[in-house]
Amino acid sequence: MAALPDLYERMFFIRRFEETLLDLFAQGKLVGTTHTYIGQEANAVGILDHLEPERDVVFSNHRCHGHYLAFTDDAFGLLSEVMGKATGVCGGKGGSQHLCRGNFYSNGVLGSIVPVATGIALAEKVKGTGALSTVFLGDGTLGQGVTYESLNISSLWSLPVLFVVENNHYAQSTPVELELAGSIAARAAAFGIETAELDTTDVEEVHDAAGRAVARVRETGRPFFLVLDTYRFSPHSKGDDNRDPAEIEERRGRDPLAVAGPRLDASEREAVEQACERRLAEVVEAAEAAPAAAPEAA
Amino acid sequence: MSASSQPLRCGQVLNRALHELFATRDDVHLLGEDVLDPYGGAFKVTQGLSDAYPDRVLTTPISEASLFGVAAGMALRGRRPILEIMFGDFIALGFDQIVNGIAKFREMYDGQVTVPLVVRTPMGGRRGYGPTHSQSLEKLLLGVPNVVVVATSECHDLRGLLVSAVEDDRPVFLVENKLMYGRPNRRPEDGHVGELEVRETGARYPALTFSGTGFGEASATIVTYGGMVPVVLDAVTDLILEHEIFCEVVALSQLLPMELEPVLESVARTGALVTAEEGTLTGGFGAEVSARVQELAWSELRAPVRRVAARDGIVPSARPLEDAMLPGAQDVVEAIVSLEGVRR
């Protein structure tokens, strides 16, 4: 298990990676779209530290960069993928939302990934690998019917799925109050699935709770439903943000970097951040220099 | 099978092929609604399978939208799931998974994965099941790149089609037919089905070409598949006996990717083409076939390609209404007889 400086470093790198993506978009160096993870870093980092990338499987959604980096640490493959380069992890075919590397997958239709992650858990169960299938949902995903079919199936068949709901309070521009009725955790409990709810942006608290959740899935072979209250500071995509700036500012007091950072020794924190900046600069330089995806690869 | 014995019914052939696949491969799984013994599936194709292989036959909740995804997840992780969808109409519930997952994973992940799943599902009417249990919706799949659509017919090697589908690394939709299940699997014997001479391609999913004239002097080609094969063969007999018009019939099994070589070869001999499908007319199999044949063999055609299909509407429940809506042998006969220059 990673210690706090490592967790902080991972969060800081994701933050700077995503900020850099938005800069590159502003400079016209990226096309298409992106959904950044700024503000939610404690979740990906705190949870995925408990998984074994050679064995366990992660299925993520449209907002997948933080999960991808935390699980694979492949910044060059991701950045060059988003930049449409031949060196992208999917050769430029997938782009920001459609990633695959080893045991990591993501796809861009909300809810669509949940049954697939359930099937992955079934396959790993019958193969006897002991792998855990983790799938990342959001409050918006809870509007999709297949989510509930998958909760039913995973409980009925006792499948090792860790459902993570990152409730960032907005489905694109729609506040959760306008898209969701009832309790989030009670949804899963109704299917006989063990749940835990956490309202924190403290990576150490997320890490502890996720450790318990992962351990429960490994012990029982059954699904677990982990609900994390979170917030994204960045727009849904790039410029599409109608939220009250005062609301965002208020939430910045709970920025996971601001929560965890002061626990590091000042000089250590600075060294960690500088190392991230150097690494990121190298990744950007290499990705910019990489060849564009060639039409003949289509 | 000895020469004197009756051929097995198509449903039995598929059932035996499933048992064979389960006996020879331990990576094959079957998922579907009501597939457990003693029920054995709504059309009894899975009978005996769950008793023999209880760990690999899963009866499922009524959750088609998710089951396509569950099967895709299994396939991504190296299993060979067969998903039985009780009625072909219900594939509509799975279209997000089909279009945005199953069909995309391999290409959008740049070839890092395969999705070797098989969806078996019965299509077709003529049983009075009404508007939501009688359709032939395979045409909706023909516009989905990166899936394979295979139609079974009572004259095809059904074991071969099922085994090939399971061994295929691509997602395969195996379109079965409700009437076919109970009918004998009429395989060619000595190159004949009844009085008609038959040639079979060597493709993984073969096409059968039938001729009443030894592949010479026929006046038109009819391309068809699935449950329309016996209907078209009846029409061909009628055309010979009542109108003295000889046709060739190409019965495809692989509908997508569309490979029309046997059709083009036949059209080169006959100079005219009629397409015949049980699904509705607009945007269907015949539309795509005729577009391609006119692109590839315009100079061979002496008349416009004609399409025989169901009228654009629902499949009604009452038998007289259903019969009126679905294409029958008489519709095929009329299409041929009215072809320009068909009488030589």
Key features of this structure:
heterodimer, A: 298 residues, alpha/beta, two-stranded antiparallel sheet, 9 strands, 45% helix, globular, B: 344 residues, Rossmann fold, 2 domains, seven-stranded mixed sheet, 34% helix
Layout of helices and strands:
The complex is a heterodimer of chains A (298) and B (344).
Chain A lengths: L3 H23 L14 H8 L8 E4 L4 H8 L2 H8 L17 E2 L2 E3 L6 H15 L5 E6 L6 H12 L4 E7 L2 E2 L2 E2 L8 H6 L4 E6 L3 H18 L3 E6 L15 H8 L3 H5 L5 H24 L9
Parallel strand pairs in A: 1-3, 1-4, 4-5, 5-9, 8-9
Antiparallel strand pairs in A: 2-3, 6-7
Helix pairs in contact in A: 1-2, 1-3, 1-11, 2-3, 2-8, 4-11, 5-6
Chain B lengths: L9 H15 L3 E5 L16 H4 L4 E3 L4 H13 L3 E5 L10 H8 L2 H4 L9 E6 L14 H4 L6 E4 L6 H10 L4 E6 H4 L10 E2 L2 E5 L7 E4 L8 E6 L2 H16 L3 E6 L1 E3 L4 H10 L2 E8 L4 H13 L8 E5 L8 H7 L3 H9 L7
Parallel strand pairs in B: 1-2, 1-3, 3-4, 4-6, 5-6, 10-11, 10-13, 13-14
Antiparallel strand pairs in B: 5-12, 7-8, 8-9, 9-11
Helix pairs in contact in B: 1-7, 3-4, 9-13
Describe what this molecule looks like in 3D.
The complex is a heterodimer of chains A (298) and B (344). Chain A contains eleven helices and nine strands. Chain A is an alpha/beta fold. Chain A has a seven-stranded mixed beta sheet with strand order 2-3-1-4-5-9-8, with helices on both faces. In chain A, helix 6 (145-156) links the parallel strand 4 (133-138) and strand 5 (161-167). The longest helix of chain A has 24 residues, at 266-289. The N and C termini of chain A lie far apart (41 Å). The mean pLDDT of chain A is 96. Chain B is of the alpha/beta class and 344 residues long. Chain B has two domains: 10-181, Rossmann fold, CATH 3.40.50; 192-337, Rossmann fold, CATH 3.40.50.920. Chain B contains 13 helices and 14 strands. In chain B, helix 1 (10-24) runs parallel beside helix 7 (158-167). The A-B interface holds A 57, 89-91, 93-94, 98-101, 105, 107-109, 112-124, 126-127, 133, 145-146, 149-150, 152-153, 156-157 and B 29, 55-56, 58, 60-61, 63, 65-79, 81, 96-97, 100-101, 104-105, 107-110, 112-113.
